[in-house]
# Entry
Amino acid sequence: MYQPIHESVAVAGVYEQGRFRPVKFRWQKRLFQIQEICSVHDFRDGTVQKRRFSVLANQTVFLLEFDRRQESWMLEEIWIEN
# Structure
């Protein structure tokens, strides 16, 4: 199940064919290398355009969200196995 986090993170990535691809992120003083991007979803939160990346890092799925207005990143959720 997903565990809500909603904490600010730093994300680094590359541009490929005009689109940003995250390659790593820092959360709670730990660096996570992204092994796979599982999905990308653009949506609107009111008037704010956002993009969500579901990524696999360290055998865990993370949901990263980019706010285009503030140009900021949030870690929204983590998949936790029971």
Summary: The chain has a mean pLDDT of 96. The beta strands are 2-8, 10-16, 19-27, 30-33, 36-45, 48-57, 60-67, 72-79. Residues 37 and 55 are 4 Å apart (CA to CA). The first strand starts at residue 2 and ends at 8.
